[in-house]
Recover the amino acids of this structure.
């Protein structure tokens, strides 16, 4: 069964989650420079929230894809 806790114990999601967070933080500058002057703070905030949600879905997709790999093909199979 898929659970985020089991992925965290296997060490699969940590680097991917940090990279996703850093990508979102860096993209906030772009949102502030492009979206906020054109559409205002409300739309800028909604854009930032939507971007965070999209990146989170991509991150979870990567993590769940890694957890579904065949353990016989990986270098370090999970211990029982």
């Amino acid at each position: 069964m898929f659970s985020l806790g089991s992925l965290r114990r296997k060490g699969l999601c940590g680097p991917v989650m940090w990279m996703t967070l850093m990508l979102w933080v860096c993209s906030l500058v772009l949102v502030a420079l492009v979206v906020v002057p054109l559409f205002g703070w409300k739309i800028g905030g909604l854009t930032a929230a939507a971007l965070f949600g999209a990146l989170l879905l991509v991150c979870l997709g990567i993590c769940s894809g890694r957890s579904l790999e065949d353990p016989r093909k990986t270098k370090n199979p999970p211990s029982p």
Summary: Residues 13-64 form one domain.
